[in-house]
Amino acid sequence: MLASPLLDVQGLQVEYQTPGGVVRAVDGVSFQIRPGEVLGLAGESGSGKSTVAHAITRILHPPAVITGGEVHFRDRDVLAMSDTELANFRWREVSMVFQSAMNALNPVMTIGDQIADTIVAHEAVTRRDARERARELLDVVGIEARRLDAYPHQLSGGMRQRAVIAIALALNPPLMIMDEPTTALDVVVQQEILLQIEELKERFGFSILFITHDLSLLVEFSDRIAIMYAGQIVEMAPAQRVFDDPLHPYTVGLMNSFPALTGEKTRMSGIPGSPPDMRHPPSGCRFHDRCALVQPMHTRVVPLLREAKPGHFVACHLYDAMPGSAPAADVHHLALRGR
Amino acid sequence: MFITLRYEVADMQAHATPAPPPSARPPLLEVRGLGKRFPVGGIFRRASVHALEDASFTLERGRIVALVGESGSGKSTTARLIARLVEPTAGEIVLNGQNVLRSEPRAASLAYRGAVQMIFQDPFASLNPVHTVGYHLSRPLAIHGKSRGGKDEQGAIEALLATVGLTPPAIYAEKFPHELSGGQRQRVAFARALAVDPAVMLADEPISMLDVSIRMGILNLMERLKEERGIAYLYITHDIASARYIADETIVMYAGRMVEGATGDELIGHPAHPYTQLLLSAVPDPRTPRRRQPRARAELPSLIDPPPGCPFANRCPHVMDVCRQTMPGVESIAAGHWVRCHLYGPGSSSANA
Prior knowledge:
The structure holds 2 protein chains of 2 kinds. Chain A contains 11 helices and 12 strands. Chain A is an alpha/beta fold.
């Protein structure tokens, strides 16, 4: 549990500096990923979860600017890296899998060449050896080796996503960032790819930062979950704990936002209102205008992420007074009342 | 133990199934053997995509039928055919006893369009960015003669917005789509459909593009309109859990075919078709322990001139010779539960495969 972190993000702050004003998309986000761990980052559109991923790998482009915080990878300062260092850091240490495999792949190159390119760019190997490695990688992700010379359009959506995962695996990096890797896929294909990723993780031992809006998937797939709302982490805990015992009213509301497949049918209410406009985020607790338990003080004072129960962090004023003895049952009950 | 149990919110009484109307009255909407083939290929090779084959179901007033399936299963095609955005190549659509493909063969009449409305998946694309919400609602009111313009129209618009929960309505009427969130836009889409006072709404993935926290609000709105106005829905989704939540009957589609139908609980509790079983095993659901089924190949078969037989045959763990040769018929296996699979056909012994 207390292995030294692979990735350590502290107080990360990212702003989109647009002519219309500054939008702080990520505001003081801190988390760590340990070796071999899957950290799930959940949030709705505009919560800043993808911006976090882009900041960690330094692929943000203006108007997005990192305006504060620190990112350390194995004690190296990622935000201070030169372009050369970054070129080595990316893909060798951290690789990325994005939602739209169709856009991630070059339509006029065969997938074999694209995998080989990645290897040749980072390692002193011959093209022939790189292609041989590409063949092995395709096999590892469950694509027949004869597809080496296939173009992306000749593959199904699931196969393309597997090819992208093969590229991400090419240099055997210790950390993979997966941003909604299965969102565009059907559930049966999604299940296959997730099982495949789990197998690969067992085999190669990499860590994953898994970003998605799909909480039910995240509870099954990740070790810990961080919930983002309006640019901030509002709750972070082991996955099953987030599901069984959510503390933040937003998380409670999210858990009441997707119907169960089995069991008794209960009326689900979701969360009233809409996610905030980040050009004008609400004052104090950013969830206050959608929260059933709001107090006048919550609209003024920003709650800090603190350990309400061992290993269970929450940023909510309801837990201010009573560290370690949080009134969880009441929050669950009350957060949903009066809807 | 589970959070849902802790709230102790009242059970969904809405799911108490109303008794079907006396058989003297024809069903509200009946679809029989509906099909669509799209021609593909050039001069020398005539082929067609079998997007939908032999789809049949009945929709009664105040009921919700869900079509569940993956992309390419034909569920959206079904809705588009019923909306008559695309003309069917086979089958019948019978609304209130009237065979509309025969009585209005070229295009749907105003009366039909007034009775059958569609809600699209993407509320960012279904509203015109240069028009206000009020304008979007004024058009169906005018075209279908539901208001006399002026104050009457303004009142109708505000009543519609209030019905879908956009209050204060006068303010929302002035807004442009870009000023609204996804959930609010989808509410406008519902208001626009309601403007013509339809009997049937075809909702094509109405919540899948929305943020998780606001999806239930839209589903609950659908349910309320069903209760208050007796609107019948064809609810199209890839999310079988949401189908169970809201629908009276759920039909599973695969590769252009309806393969199984039952109530959501029956379907999830006793899935009969091997495809339904595969689909259910793949749905992430933290409330139930992980179920790992033997893997099936994930690839959908080609819909271009498919071979005879069951479309699931090449992936099915229980495949038999007959599956590749003849299309299975519809077999009733329990009250209100039917399946299209040779495992359950006459003379088969392995009915619980």
